[in-house]
Amino acid sequence: MRFTLIFIGTTIYHFCIYPLILLFAGVFLKKKKLETGKKKYSVSVIIPVFNEDKNIESKVKNTLVALKNYTGEIIVVSDGSTDKTNHLLKNLKAENRSIVKTIVCDQRSGKAAAINTALPECTGELVLITDANVFLDCKFFSEIIKMYNEFDCDCVFGNLIYSSFSYSSLTVGENSYWSWDKLLSTLETCSGLGSATGIIGSLLSFKTELIKEIPANAILDDMELLAILLEKKKKSLFCSKAFGYEIPARTTYDGIVRKERIISGIYGWMMRRKFGKMRFLDLFFLFSHKISRWSLPLLFILHLIECMKDGPVILRKFYKLFFILPVFEAIGRFIISLFSGVKDIKIKWFFVPFYLICMMVSFIIGTLRHFSGKATVMWKISER
Question: What's the pLDDT at 303?
């Protein structure tokens, strides 16, 4: 039962031991505030878009409202859009010529390439990268800049809130995932020891001079940005009061497509890393928060295979009763949601097995895509 022990040990470490270490550090090692005054940073907001004609006007207007008390600019990069996005951007630029910049790329190259296109155009002291479907709270920039003023940090990421998660049962699991992720980021920030590593790419800010480009073939652009900063021994923090709001994917299918893309991106991200350049505590946080959890789907699959083959009878019966049986209903509802977008799985005790199934499916597909060379930097617009 080797894989079972590894799976149980990794699970206990990630969900129990690591949070307790952070909690202990937060209680006994208080994070020191700086006495640097209240500097008003200028901000460059980068919004990479692809076929976002339904959101782009609202997004730009929302960002303008959030920026109203600050010196800033909005740089929208249209990454090969084929709908009305480019036409709308032309009008938005004409209406807000002093603030809104637009870059239209004829060929689609992916989010990382779009970010690289915008970075040389940034004139602000801070860069914020955000998505077209994420809307900023009116106090977002005041909270972010407060973190830069009060603490010794080079990167601050905000708090993403799902404004609705009633469409898909996978989204319910996703919401729980993000809640746990943000709890760990809060504990990491409060510990005062290392960097918060639960980076949120749609609400990510950093000091402009630190990053000039990221690998154009990166799928996980947010993790690439974090890793570059950590390899430069810079610090990232989580701001729980800087809210951004997103409507999640409507169907389970869209959720799985997003997750398998993340899984395939993890492999490339790991291969590019220079872990030896990171500070020990940052590496410890990164391993404990991200890498240990990324390993859980694989470990769970290996544990399940091992358990069903040689495990104790009582454990096999447990999985058959509480996991295998709900699979059939979960698969049935999953198939329905694939083709109809019907709101699926309403019985709460099905959420956990269904989410585990989706994670395993995403892991397998993402792994196959990476090793077959079919992983792509292009992102898909989800139905919302």
Answer: 87
Measuring CA to CA, how many Å separate 306 from each of 136, 280, 301, 354? 46, 34, 9, 21
Domains of the chain: 43-249 (3.90.550.10)
The C-alpha angle 379, 383, 384, rounded to 5 degrees, equals: 115
DSSP secondary structure letters along 224-240: HHHHHHHHTT--EEEEE
Query: Which regions of the chain does DSSP assign to beta strands (E)?
Result: 43-49, 72-79, 100-105, 126-130, 134-136, 155-162, 203-207, 236-246
pLDDT in tens, 258-313: 888 999 999 999 999 999 999 999 999 999 999 999 999 899 889 888 887 887 88
Inter-axis angle of helices 169-191 and 18-28, nearest 10:
40
Residue that is written with structure tokens 């959101």 in the block: 55
CB count in 10 Å sphere of residue 295: 16
User: Which parts of 66-198 are beta strand (E)?
Assistant: 72-79, 100-105, 126-130, 134-136, 155-162
How many Å from the N-terminal Cα to the C-terminal Cα in the chain?
43
Q: Are strands 134-136 and 72-79 parallel, antiparallel or unpaired?
A: unpaired
Q: Where are the beta strands (DSSP E) in 331-375?
A: none
Lowest mean pLDDT across 24-28, 142-146, 366-370? 24-28
Say if residue 217 is exposed, middle or buried (CB neighbours under 10 Å; 0-12, 13-18, 19+).
middle
pLDDT at 253 over 50: yes
Q: How many CB atoms lie within 10 A of CB 309?
A: 8
pLDDT of residue 152: 82
Q: Tell me if 53 sits within 8 A of 83, measured CB to CB.
A: yes
DSSP β-ladder status, 134-136 and 236-246:
antiparallel
Check pLDDT > 80 for residue 327. no
Amino acid at residue number 290: K
Whole-model pTM: value is 0.89
- Do 148 and 40 touch, CB atoms closer than 8 A? no
The tokens for 223 are 């993790």
What's the rounded Cα separation, in Å, for the pair 286 and 117? 28
- More confident: 137 or 328: 137
- What are the tokens at 313? 């009878």
345 pLDDT band (50/70/90 cuts)?
Answer: very low
Token reading at 366: 């993402």
Longest dimension (CA), the chain: 70
